[in-house]
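Mods, move this if it's the wrong board.
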Amino acid sequence: MMSYSLILRSLFNDRWLYSLLSWLPLVVFLSIAAIFSSSFARENVIMVVDQDNSRLSRQLIRSYHASPNLSVTMSSNIQTAKDALVKGDIYAYVIIPNDLERDVKRFRSPLVQSYYNGQFLVIGKQVNAALAGIHTTINVGIDVGRVMGTGNTPALQAFGSVMPIRAQMSALFNSNNDYAQFILSGALPAAWQLIIVLSMVLIYSKFLKTESLENKRNISSILRISLVSGAMLVLQGLVMACLLFVYKGWPMRGDWSLIVFAQVLCVMASQAIALFLVFLLKDRTRALSFAAALTAPSFAFMGVTFPLDSMPTFSLLWRQLIPICHYVDIQISQSNHAPAIVHDADSLLKLAMFGLLFLAALCLVPQVQKQEVQA
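Not the wrong board. C-alpha cells:
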C-alpha cells in the first residue's frame, strides 16, 4: 500500500501534475476574471444615418450620445452603415428618415429603423434596450408637449395622461446587472471542472504505471491517492469561491459550510468519473479525450446563460452527468437565496450518487489485475 508521503513526492516530482494541483488553476481563475473584469459593456459602437437633419433628429442623436451604453458615429449613406455592420466595425445602425420632424407634427408616426447584430447576444440586447428606452423617452416628451399645448394642463397631469400606468422593474439578484458576476459565477466553476477531471485522469494513469501490481491497483492505495489529490482540488475550489465572494465582494447570503461540502462532493464525483474512465478504457489518451468531451459543455448546461426549461431532453440528461452543474445549482441558490439545506438536498443527492460510479470503478480492479497477470 502506498504511503501518503510517497504519493505526495510522486505528485510534486511531476512538474505537470504539480502545476495542475498548485499554481496553474490560480492563473486560470485570475485570467478568466481579468478577461471579464469589466462589469458593464459600455460604449457599444452604433452608426446613425440622419436623413432629416432637423431639430428633432438632432435631439434624438444627442440622446444616443448621452447613453453610457452607446458610442455614436455618423454616416450619410445607408450602404456604408450596412457594410460596417457586416464587417463587425459597429454593433448596430439607425436610420432617421426624411421629414421626421414634419411627420411628427402632422401625427403621421414616422418610422426610425434600427438594425443590430444579433450574433452578439448580450451586446445586441444592450443596444436594443438602450435604443428602445431612448425612443420611448422621446415619444413621451413629444406627447406631453402636445397635451400641454392644448391648454393650461400641468406637466404632471399631462405626463399622467400620456402614461396612465407606470412600471417599475427591479432586479432582486445581481441588482446592478453586473456582467462579470453573471459570467464568472459559471465560467470559473466550468474551468475548475475541467481541471479536476483532467488532473485526476493523469494522476490515476500515472500511478497505474508503477511496477508493483499490488500498489498500483490496491484499493487502499487508490483511496489514498484520491484523498491526497482531492484535498488539493478542494483547496482550489475554496480559492475560486473566495475570489468570487470575498475578493470580488459579491454577496454570499447562504451557508459557507454547505458550499464547502458541495465542493467536496463535486471533487469526489469528478474523481469517480476519472477513475471509471481510466479503468474502463485502460489508455490515458482515450480517457482524457472522453473526460474532456463529457465536461467541455458544462458552462452551457449550467442554466446560467440559457434557461434549463428550454433545453432539449438530451441536454438535460447530459447535464446530469456533469458534477459541476449540480454544484453551481447549490452555489447560486446559497449565494442569492440562502435557503435551508433541504432546498438543495436534490443537488447534493445527485452529487453523492456519483459514489456508485466510484464503486463500479473499484469493481473493475480485480478484472484489470487478472488481465495484466495473464499478459
